[in-house]
Amino acid sequence: MSKITAAITAVGAYVPETKLTNADLEKMVDTNDEWIKTRTGISERRILREPGKATSDLGTPAVLELLRKRNLDPKDIDCIICATVTPDMLFPATANIISHNVGASNAFGFDVNAACSGFLFALTTGTSFIESGRYKKVIVVGADKMSSIVDYTDRTTCILFGDAAAAVLLEPSTDENGILDSLLKSDGVGKNYLYQKAGGSLNPASVETVLAKQHFIYQDGQPVFKFAVKGMADVSAELLERNNLTGDDIAWLVPHQANLRIIDATANRMGLPKEKVMINIQKYGNTTAATIPLCLWEWESQLKKGDNIVLAAFGGGFTWGATWVKWAYNS
Ligand code: UT7
Questions:
Q1: What is the largest CA-CA distance in the chain?
Q2: 5-175 CATH
Q3: How many Å lie between the centroid of ligand 1 and the Cα of residue 232?
Q4: Whose CA is closest to atom 29 on ligand 1?
Q5: CATH 3.40.47.10 domain residues, the chain
Q6: Per CATH, is 180-326 categorized as 3.40.47.10?
Q7: How many CB atoms lie within 10 A of CB 242?
Q8: Of 40, 57, 322, whose CA–CA distance to 165 is shortest?
Q9: To test ligand 1's pocket by mutation, which of 222, 229, 235, 287 has the most ligand atoms within 8 angstroms of CB?
Q10: Nearest atom, ligand 1, residue 40 CA
Q11: Which end of the chain is flanked by fewer CB atoms within 10 Å, N or C?
């Protein structure tokens, strides 16, 4: 009997309509379009502005689109995993709220917190569920309302992030397409460089934590940049090497969209020309867990069955990883 792999068989996404451009940010903090574009590659991001809307309001339409595209009954979904660092609430899990919203009443769900690598960590978890033979339809959604934890008076972080969600469906396959290998890493040394200080058990919310702005993202950009360049490039190169692949075998690199310079360094290390690299950071900024599936969604019509694709991420924690996917369908 041939081995069961977990294949991505559908993609859905949702980006809010409101755009926050570099020109808008110039009016809010001491920055300029040229600095932002040169240092990050970002021109604009999307923001979920409506009051009372949360990460599940990004994830829900992304999952609904995926279900619609495949004409699926939500009751047939076994599991929904949501990668996020901006859950609607600390508990219950945002995955449960999305399941309820889309009518996936037979699915169990949980959230994965691995920051910008969250999608890869959740995808690898979902893959194991499928490979084990226990589940047949698993949805992995990366969703983040980053605007809920961005301090729009801090020019070092507010220019970077945007809101979005994107989801993939995993199903069993026996034709050797699907998620073929994953290399995931984490190192707690990162906890002091990129984090949200308060709101957890270490520093529960209080008047003091709010006044000290400790519920926003804090990032020490330069060290994170250095770790990210090395981490994402190393892990991608290692993934290729252990599967006897070279840049020539790869149709697409799908990098986490944190900074164009980190993306370029990873592509160079893998020996890939720019035409093989999915880049949409200019339109959406860093949407944390959503960046990678959002790229797959945008490029879906160009992907061909059998294409070798490498997904690569680096994020807070630190967390990082790379995943080898053989694309399973022509759309
Ligand atoms: O996705 C999760 C993982 N995160 C990442 O991968 C992000 C990694 N880090 C980065 O991408 C970069 O470090 C940043 C884009 C965040 C910053 O770029 P940088 O080239 O490392 O800039 P910097 O922090 O070294 O700052 C250079 C200068 C500083 O001024 P001085 O000290 O040289 O006078 C900053 O104060 O640029 C200043 N600066 C700004 N100027 C205009 C910082 N932010 C801004 C801004 N506009 N928005």
A1: 62
A2: 3.40.47.10
A3: 19
A4: 156
A5: 5-175, 180-326
A6: yes
A7: 11
A8: 57
A9: 222
A10: 15
A11: N
Q: Sign of torsion, CA 293 297 298 302?
A: positive
- Residue 132 DSSP symbol: T
Q: The tokens 């940010």 sit on which residue? A: 25
Owner of token pair 């980006």: 15
Distance 289 CA to ligand 1 centre (A): 21
pLDDT band at 3 (very low <50, low <70, confident <90, very high): confident
Ligand 1 center from residue 39 Cα (angstroms): 7
pLDDT at 2: 75
Residue in the block written with tokens 């949200």: 196
Q: Give per-residue pLDDT as tens, 226-245.
A: 999 999 999 999 999 999 99
- Chain segment 25-79, per-residue pLDDT in tens: 999 999 999 999 999 999 999 999 999 999 999 999 999 999 999 999 999 999 9
pLDDT for residue 292 is more than 70:
yes
For tokens 């080898």, the residue is: 324
Catalogue the active-site residues. Answer: 116, 256, 286
